[in-house]
Give the backbone structure.
Amino acid sequence: MKISSFLYFAGFGIRTVLFRKKDPILGTIILTDRCNLTCRHCSVNNITSVMYPYEQVKKEMRQLYDMGIRILFFCGGETFLWEDHGKKLRDLVIEAKEMGFLIVNTVTNGTFPIDLPEADLILLSLDGDKERHNQIRGNTYDRIMHHIRHASSDNICFYMAVNQINKDAVRDVCLLAKDTPNVRAVSFNFHTPYPDTKELALTPKEKAKCCKVMAEMMEEGAPVFNLKSAFPYLIDNRFPTPCHQCVVMENGKLSVCGRCIEVPGLCEKCGYFFVAEYTLLFAGNVKIIWEMLRTYLKYI
């Protein structure tokens, strides 16, 4: 991370904590909900299958930037499917950088060739070892690993949603992240139980077991891009929601924290690690602040 970016985020954090501000710093733009997969844990794919127009996305980027947001995510559906009038995902990442966003990331399922060196991080969904991943996402594991090996940059971060199917594969993914070229880290979430996927949610005891494995892997040098200090809050969902410092934009509609905020009772069962980490950070939790400084400087 550039020193100028670090100083900007440090200043934002200090102002937010001292004055209890709720200004956002992280924004996500949904480019499309079209996806080439039908994953067992996903509740938001192929509802409309609309590709949002380039000019609209560019306008949304400017709106988020003018709000003070400096960390931008592009999400789907599948982001590498997005295109409009010859513009593709790479064009958006480059424009976001030129617009002034300090960190620009994208999320992908990894089933398309990965040539996006301009992104700070490419969060690639890998949901366990080959058997468990394919059980969730279809027969895609080998294709994804091929694309990782031939990626044009080392900016890939595994992105694993832990659920009842893959809860025993946390160690496998940590070791894979540690040993695979072009992979910088692994970031975990717990499954957030949308009404149609409740059966995949973990119990607090199961979450605690997974967090124990993550902590052990951190001690063994695995590149886990999460904060150990937040684990106790995630296990029992004892972190405040929603996260006012994060917003999501989809088709001109702005939501605080995420799209799931509109589902009754879902915030209280949130499994997103970054929500816990950010809300605790901006609440002034000293352990979280210190650990986030070390972690972000290491992996971004």
User: Anything to note?
Assistant: The beta strands are 26-30, 71-75, 83-84, 87-88, 103-108, 121-125, 156-162, 183-190, 246-250, 253-256. The domain at 3-299 is CATH 3.20.20.70 (TIM Barrel).
